[in-house]
Amino acid sequence: MTIGKISLQNIKSKPLYTFLSVFILALSIALLLGIQQLEASFKYQMENNLGDIDLVIGAKGSPLQLVLASVLHLDSPTGNILYEDAKKISKNPLIKTAVPISYGDNYKGYRIVGTTDKFAPLYNAKLEKGRAVKKSMEVILGHTVAEQLHLNIGDTFLSSHGLVENNVHMHSEHLTVVGILNPTQKVIDRLIITNLESVWDVHHHDDNEAHEKEENHAEHHEELDEGKEITSLLISFRNPSALLTLPRRINEHTNMQAALPKYELDRLYQYTGVGVKTISWIAYMILIISCMTIFISLYKMVKERAFDLALLRTYGASNFQLIRMVVYEGLAIAFLAFILGFMLSKAGLYFMLKIVETNYKQNILQALPFQEFTQTGALVFVMIVFSVSLAIYPIIKMNISTILSNEK
User: Of 59, 218, 282, 295, which residue has the fewest beta carbons closer than 10 angstroms?
Assistant: First the structure.
């Protein structure tokens, strides 16, 4: 019988110890991998979805809510602001681009955003097929929307009022798909893009219960924007010095508020970072406990089977071969635990983020960087090697004649 088969028989002979060792180690690995992947996904969302947005201007309220609603599209807006006031601010020489957005409708849970042709460049999004929006009631789909809802160029659909999917408050105007964006792995993939006039027309028609003919839209859009509202204004600065003056001026001298996306999301990360660190420390503690369990299991095996090991020595087995037997057993447990831990982390994150995706149509999960994955694997390997090194000490100090004589 080979050394590997003996190790396998040892594992099978103590199923309870093996199960506890594998399960506890797998739990710590699952927690470590899961929290690392969540942290990496959160950082990616913050860094990637900001695009070129330096400032968000919207209605008074929570600045974090304004950022989450206008940048990540994960919350409800704080209210509306007058488009006329927003245009005055956009003329400031410190501002490079000012992109208005207006929303409040959805199609099957995906938000419909009314904006201008400057919105897509914020995320470096380009048309994969079709053309840009030219008139009211035309839309461009983010890649994920088109893929999930199986929509294509020329398809039409009816939007629903609100940000949550419903069949109660449906608008009567059909929206026509004229373009589909290429995948960007950013929030724009999950949006339906149209022009501001589409949003205004839909709600204007709802209020008046009347429909204008398509050929009259151009004349309608040439009217003054007085009284029209938008949700927020996305600002890009010409130079960083604008951060020092413009936000404070808007907050103090207007009925609007200015929020800095990077600052607000960094603050959110600091709040959630406490929970991340707590879970990480719990995972490390479980990892230490699991390695202690493996050490006790292997050490117990060596002590209980001292006679068998001594007998193997008399039949020509070397110390190195006996040590290999214990090492194989420890590595087999570690390998099983790592596979199980990886599967547990994937399953846990899948079900947790499935809830988020169902409620918000957001899939924020990103692949764990290979470097962090290997670091976790290396840490587990080092801990197992340390446990095995302690467990094989009795083999190194084994006195064959004493052990055999005591057994007799």
Answer: 218
The rounded distance, in Å, linking the Cα atoms of 186 and 5 is 51
The answer to whether residues 351 and 252 belong to one domain is no
| pLDDT at residue 283 greater than cutoff 50 | yes
**Residues 181, 106: Cα–Cα separation, whole Å:** 18
d(CA 214, CA 334): 68
pLDDT tens-digit series, residues 71-91: 988 888 888 999 999 999 988
Residue range(s) defining the domain that contains residue 93: 55-259
Query: Would you say residue 267 lies in a domain?
Result: no
| Range of lowest pLDDT (189-193, 243-247, 258-262) | 243-247
Are residues 318 and 250 part of one domain?
no
Q: 182 with 326, same domain?
A: no
Q: Which range has the top average pLDDT, 43-57, 220-234, 355-369?
A: 43-57
Same-domain pairing of 213 and 178: yes
Q: Is the pLDDT of residue 234 over 90?
A: yes
The residue among 205, 226, 259 that closes a domain is 259
Considering the chain, what percentage of its residues have pLDDT values greater than 70? 86
Q: Per the domain annotation, does 167 fall within a domain? A: yes
Say if strands 95-107 and 110-115 run parallel, antiparallel, or are unpaired.
Answer: antiparallel
The secondary element (H helix, E strand) that includes residue 71 is none
Residue 231 clears pLDDT 90, i.e. is over it? yes
Whether residue 360 sits in one domain with residue 278: yes
pTM of the prediction? 0.71
> What region does 150 belong to: left with phi over 0, alpha with psi -120 to 50, or beta?
left
| Residue that the structure tokens 């406490």 belong to | 274
Whole-angstrom Cα distance, residue 12 to residue 113?
60
Number of H helices, E strands in the chain: 14, 12
212 pLDDT band (50/70/90 cuts)?
Answer: very low
Q: Which two tokens stand for residue 247?
A: 């936000």
Domain count, the chain: 2
One domain for residues 112 and 235: yes
Element (H, E) at 158: strand 156-161
Same domain, 106 and 189: yes
Question: Is residue 226 a part of any domain in this protein?
Answer: yes
Residue 264 in this model has a pLDDT that exceeds 60: yes
Burial 12-31 (b: 16+ CB within 10 A, else e): eeeeebbebbbbbbbbbbbb
Residue 265 lies in a domain: no
